[in-house]
Amino acid sequence: MSYNSFGHEFRVTTWGESHGPAIGCVVDGVPPRLPLDEADIQKYLDQRRPGQSRFTTQRQEPDQIKILSGVFEGVTTGTSIGLVIENVDQRSRDYGDIKDKFRPGHADYTYLSKYGIRDYRGGGRSSARETAMRVAAGGVARKVLGDGIVIRGALAQVGPHKAPRDEWDWDAVGNNPFWCPNTQTAQMWENYIDEVRKAGSSVGAVIEIHVSGVPVGLGAPIYGKLDADLAGALMSINAVKGVEIGAGFGAAELRGEENADEMRLGPNGEAEFLSNQAGGILGGISTGQDIVVRFAVKPTSSILTPRRSITAKGEETDVSTKGRHDPCVGIRAVPVGEAMVACVLADHILRHRAQNG
What share of the chain is helix, strand, coil (3-state, %, to 5)? Predict the structure, then answer.
């Protein structure tokens, strides 16, 4: 299996399976002499870690990161950075009943059809467990970006229930288990997800990422567009089914004068935008405004409610997935989305420096 790497100048290769002994990644292209230790990465992994509330999978993984290479005396050396996390709470027996069945909504059928073999233990390589290493790589990417670029993510919608846009409070995001920017909405989501979980089902979500401090000029025409790379990176996350930048699909409802971000001169003669329908990117190149991107995550496919399917032997069957699963996988997708955005931006900053100095 190829295609386990992403990025150009900042390049990440992940490896490992959900129920293997460990998962890991190699990060190439990190400049030398950047301060980096395991605590710089661990704080982001702790945000994604499972089992922290009843609203996420109860698999108990400490997700303790180890740096194996590329750091000496507390700074990066310019060589490849090797990272690893040991898996400690696998329950492969939970998947014995479905080893010959195709779970609806999962990659079971496509993996077996393509490769002639599949790891049925939690989905193997297609498991969301792999995203822990994306978060680890994102911790390294933030070191490349520096403190001037701030990446913030929030859960904007759970099922049909949205956080009211005019009542967003970024300070509220870290004070509830949903990364919700509205305290009242978080309380409503708590009751809603409880109902979904007790019914043996799951629900989807929309995550929104804001990035401030991005310089003008990142990205390139035609096939190196910043928004295209962001969309590709976010679409590569498990269960993501849609991405939009700025106004996104809402732009289809606007007239030209509404969608165009008008400009005036700022106090120092610099360009100043009067709106941000473009989400901080024009022609695939950053404008210096905040980058705004949203992605939609489908409901977790592993549910207790029986669903109709077939077996690898060509028999019709019903599938009910046991084990420990997220009733809303979108909750833990927030730090994953932040990490992928960080990796793309780090890659584009290094690419920009290489061409423009």
Answer: 35, 25, 45
The DSSP 8-state label assigned to residue 123 in this structure reads: T
DSSP letter string, 155-224: EEEETTEEPPGGG--GGGGGGSTT--S-HHHHHHHHHHHHHHHHTT----EEEEEEEESPPTT--BTTTB
pLDDT at 59: 55
pLDDT bucket at 100, cuts 50 / 70 / 90: confident
Q: 96 falls in which pLDDT band (50, 70, 90)?
A: low
**What DSSP element (H or E) covers 228?**
helix 226-235
Q: For the CA atoms of the chain, what is the radius of gyration?
A: 21
Q: Give residue-wise pLDDT tens across range 217-238.
A: 999 999 999 999 999 999 999 9
d(CA 279, CA 291): 5
Provide the b/e sequence for 119-141 (b: ≥16 CB within 10 Å).
bbbbbbbbbbbbbbbbbbbbbbb
Could you tell me the pLDDT band of residue 1, with boundaries at 50, 70 and 90?
low
33-42 burial, b at 16+ Cβ within 10 Å, e below that, comes to: ebebebebbb
The order of strands in the sheet holding 291-297 is 161-162, 150-158, 205-212, 291-297, 240-245
Q: State both tokens at 116.
A: 């002639």
> N- to C-terminal Cα distance for the chain?
36
pLDDT at 18: 84
pLDDT digits (tens, 9 = 90+) for 305-318: 889 999 999 999 99
Q: Are 323 and 95 in contact (CB under 8 A)?
A: yes
Secondary structure (3-state) at 238: coil
Paired with 162 in beta bridges are: 157
| Two tokens, residue 307 | 């669903």
Q: What is the mean pLDDT of the chain?
A: 92
Cα separation, 276 vs 48, in Å, equals 30
pLDDT value of position 51: 56
Burial class (CB in 10 A: 0-12, 13-18, 19+), 166: exposed
